[in-house]
Amino acid sequence: MEIGKYSFGIGDRFAHEGVNQLKALIEAEERFGVHFDPVWNKSNREHQIVGTEPAETRREADEAVAALGYKDRYFVDADHINLTNVDRFIEASDFFTIDVADYIGKTGTMEERFLPAIKEAGRIYRHIAECKGAGNFVTEVSMDEVDKAQTPEELRYILKELAAEKIPLQTIAPKFTGRFNKGVDYRGDLALFEKEFEQDLMVIAEAVKAYGLPANLKLSIHSGSDKFSIYPIMGRLIRKHDAGIHIKTAGTTWLEENIGLAVADPAALVLAKKIYVNALGRMEELAVPYATVIDIDESKLPLPEEVAGWDADTYARTLRHNQEDPLYNPSFRQLIHVSYKIAAELGDEFYPALEKHTDVIGEQITANLCERHIKRLFPGK
């Protein structure tokens, strides 16, 4: 099973937007002439918070493909799995993101730091292969959720040892310098990111030839949602090196659902505000699973009484990721990002609202993925 040169992870917290997400990729191909394989991704953490099962992600993907008559490849990603939780994903998934960041040491030689993680990746891969059969899924190895970016020499060593483990990985997610906070733009030295990204592209190309790794091996960018300042850099460099890329997005779809509710009608706006107010009162609890990937300035969060007086336009502009809009509030956006647990708890109100306003919400989601994300990778198309 092979994934294409370009692929796009379209995470969906509530499994309601598969059609709208796929429409964005179809529209992008029509407008920009670039095909992305769709990959519906959802992590074990997200399933636990929302109370869903991997089978629901598979059903969402299959139904979206059927509804739009889509004939190309598509995948369902068991995102950030390990040996403790992979079994619940085996049947529904055909893309596995093997996360071994917790096994990477902070001190010692290169071998001491990375070999335990590589050996663990091998154990997880072989377990999946025994269950599904080798060749029946796409393998990604994720090492991005660590403190320090891997050097080119370290990435070369990692790829060499992954090859020795006979893992046919097609995508790899290393760590890059800078902040990849959820739902907001990249924060860091863009010149340094460009240097690291290009070095990684060259190391991968060398490793494919030297170690017999799959010819389509490519970089995977995690927390790729809304990292708008690095999209032109990545787009330019993958064209320069004729390289592929996998970009993984997730929470940006939930944020567009929230915006869609706000602008749909007065009752849905009340619901969107209710989610925010409840999240404000439970911010510490909601932030715990995402503590390392959010930076919320509490002094910038509007009080409930202020939000109560907002009209739909003010709410949407405060949340929508438009850095040129003076109303845009990154702290507000990050709090809404982690508030999807509140929406799930309000399921009797929330899910009917999603279904009632699917057209309005769909416009937000499709435009967000196509215009704000993919267009920045291929701006000259």
Layout of helices and strands:
Blueprint: E1 6-10, H1 18-32, E2 37-43, H2 44-50, H3 54-68, E3 75-81, E4 95-99, H4 110-132, E5 138-142, H5 152-164, E6 171-173, H6 190-211, E7 218-221, H7 231-240, E8 245-249, H8 251-264, H9 266-281, H10 283-287, H11 304-308, H12 312-319, H13 330-337, H14 340-345, H15 347-356, H16 358-377
Parallel strand pairs: 1-2, 1-8, 2-3, 3-4, 4-5, 5-6, 6-7, 7-8
Q: How many domains, in number, for the residues?
A: 2
The H-and-E topology, N to C, reads as: EHEHHEEHEHEHEHEHHHHHHHHH
Global morphology: globular
- State the end-to-end CA separation: 29 Å
Q: Give me the side-by-side strand order of the main sheet.
A: 1-2-3-4-5-6-7-8
**CATH level-1 class of the largest domain:** Alpha Beta
Spans where pLDDT lies below 50 across 5 or more residues: none
Radius of gyration based on Cα positions: 20 Å
Number of helices: 16
Tell me what portion of residues adopts beta-strand conformation: 5-15%
Name the CATH architecture of the largest domain: Alpha-Beta Barrel
Structural class by SSE content: alpha/beta
Largest sheet: 8 strands, parallel, barrel
Query: Average pLDDT value?
Result: 97
